[in-house]
Amino acid sequence: MGETAYETVIGLEVHCELSTATKLFCACANQFGSEANTNICPVCLGLPGSLPVLNRRAVELAMRIGEALSCRIEPSIFHRKNYFYPDMPKDYQISQYDAPINVDGALELPDGSRVGIVRAHIEEDTGKTTHIGGGGGRIHGADHSLVDYNRAGVPLVEIVSAPDIRSAAQARTYVAELRAIVIAAGASDGRMEEGSLRVDANVSVRPAGTPEYGTRCEVKNLNSLRSLVRAIEHEAERQVAIVSAGGSIAQETRHFDENTGLTHSLRSKEEAYDYRYFPEPDLVPVVPNAELLAAARAGMGVMPVERRRRLVALVGSEGTAEQIQTVIELDLDGLVLAAVGAGAEARLALARTANEAAAKAEGARSLDPSAFAALLGMEAGGKLSATQAKTVLAELIDSGGQPGDIARRLGFEAMESSEIDALVDELIAQHPMEWQRYQAGDPKVASFLLGQVMKATKGRANGRLVTEALEARKG
Amino acid sequence: MSEARDGHPLDGGVRAIAEAVRSGEATAVGIVEEAFRRIRESDTELHCFNLLTEEAALEAAASVDESVARGIDPGALAGVPVALKDNLCTKGTETTCSSKILQGWKPPYDATVVSRLRAAGAIAVGKTNLDEFAMGSSTENSAFGPTRNPWDVTRVPGGSSGGSSAAVAAGLVATSLGSDTGGSIRQPASLCGVVGIKPTYGLVSRYGLIAFASSLDQIGTFAVEVGDAAATLEVIAGHDPADSTSLGQPAPSLLDRLFDGVEGLRVGLISDFLADVAAPCSKAADDAGEALARAGAKVEQVSIPEMLLGLPAYYIIAPAEASSNLARYDGVRYGLRVDGPDVETMNARTRAEGFGPEVRRRIMIGTYALSSGYYDAYYGQAQKARTLVIRAFEAAYERFDVLLAPTTPSTAFKLGAKTANPIEMYLSDLCTIPSNLSGHPAVSVPFALDPDGLPVGVQVLAPALGEALMLRVAATVEAFASPSARGPVRPRPTGGEVEPGG
Question: B241 — contact with chain A (CB < 8 Å)?
Fold first, then answer.
């Protein structure tokens, strides 16, 4: 009997902080990185007697996300989700439950696969607790805890996918695509490293081909795309090991440990909170009228699927998918388009953006496209070698300026053909054996000869011109 | 019989005081000093107040007088001493909800109603006692001891706004604010012989009212006369952007047509409470109906059986909301903290020590009613019952302009008489709860005395935002009421000698 093949089934809950100026229910600044407990007021501290007033802008941004995910935008109400936790000022979270604002959408991934969106609802974020001493950063065993309520009441949209995802890689693509979408919609800055985008993964496994889902575990604390992939891969392996040994999976919430790459149990199904949801009596229903919808749609950027289409139109689809995906994820596709508009060769612009500019994405977003196009022109025209062009590009992103000036400063001015001719003649004289083998068409010796020229010129020579000179003497 | 207070401008009522102060006939300082003199004299026994703000009150009064002297109008309630139920936030002044768990907590802000009173020149003299977190009908569930009824200090003033109703009944202040979740203004008003208005849900901002049951809570006013309770209500009513459930309307004009009479109005006398209401209380409602008929109204008995769904529905919905509203008292951020080895134990100890038995009981009931697997059977059913009550009212208001009913099943009962039996205590709100479930306005007006010489109120109910009409009818009821049935009275012991007035 052959080994059973297992399929991983994944559903993701993505919490996305909305980039409003103020919090969801009060006028405090929605700002990351302020000094602890400075963006607070009676409302977001849940002081007795305070009442929430819904931020209209947050509703607009939530509706944008709904639009971008092809959801139906519905009349919605808020519920209270009741549980005790020190970083939750009211000991309940105002969230949407059985009447969320966005339902029934879908997200099409670059490979054409489709992930259903069950809902994308509005809720408030909690504060942030730091546990000091003892318990290794966890609440149990800590000596004491510090709570920062700056984040309490920050607007979130929780985007819940259907269990349509089948691999860690697809989960990664889904989150990356979702991130690009919320950024393009102007709804969120999508910064995972600042917690603007947080992911929980529901993971189960089943023998390939069976229609029933396995028992799922919810994995929390996935703070980067890398963690997402590692956690899902580990969790699926763990479950497969249990199931194939004849065991069964306990439904539970598990915590991913970034240091060990393992997940461990947080609480079992029996220990799960009973949230005692009921309609929030302090707020009134949200009805998405035409005016709100229009306000939401205005200011929405171009969605990734359309951005991909634009790039494919420029560079073709052959072998470009990965580069296209990278530049869109990093919000650098605009740079490619602008550089092409300024006269750059499209494939080269895409390659340099996806490979080199991507490494400095933050700075690259403000790169002057015409300077970038000029640099690409120098490379294409042979004035700079590929290596030199990359060095100039890095400098251009870091410090700005004109590529020509940078190349001159770095001593990258292309050598005159006469200079190269002289070098090549000298080379042939010094290495007669190798020259013979080159003439016989030995490819290994070609790179040896090129390497000698580069060594002699400290990389200043343009490889293509050297090769041309060698070829010309081949006779 | 009661001994009325009179002679001092403080006894003139809200409108007369404001008029006297604005015209310079009386000074705000003089009136406020008299209020504090009476409080010192009576409040040791009555315990209407949890806290007095004498210094700030005299300062505010002096500033009102200064405005008058400089020809600046200090506002519609110039120099009017007002008592605030101690579940209304007052900036920098302790606000306790009569609970150990909030003892010592000073809000960093004023409730909207408090700001509006201050802006209108009213003088806040202190914070009044209540059943802890407004849960109760006798003001005995206070962590700081009960308030006594000035008509008979061995009896309760009703509740939960017992401190506010007794303070007006004893003539310590001209007006006061309370909150009414199931009758907490109207029931103590009836038991203390004063007027108590519960406005339409959303007419008065709840911002700064410490929540008991958010969908039912509404702030309202007390005064000796309908017109005075209306005058205070005019000041605190009107849209507030800080409360999402606040209605869009500006404050309505309530006084303009107060004495236009009831000629031709259709009045429905609700008959369904009779079986559960003591004879003096049902008789008062009948007599008030007759009085209105004499004044030209068309009065008819009406049965609205859904009214009796109110009490059971209320005792699910209110505790359910309370269980959530009171979760925040966890010892983390403010108020009482009883330490423990971990945060859960600290939460549990703090709440076990900080909340009194009635509050704990309601938190447990509410938590149970919302629990997974029980929600539909309890909270869901209660909401359906609530809908039936609302529809029944709406149907009744197609036939009637206003409704008339007893306010309470009994007059003031003895301290301790019902503390052992919560269900009996809960029945005190039988006639008042339906208006909270429907969000409609209602007012209790003192009408007669029972054989023990205790005041009996009757209730006028109106459709949403029908305050002006409701108060017009109430003013007519008042005109026919026994003058001896209303305060202010000097506190007196039961059956004891009546102190001379003046």
Answer: yes
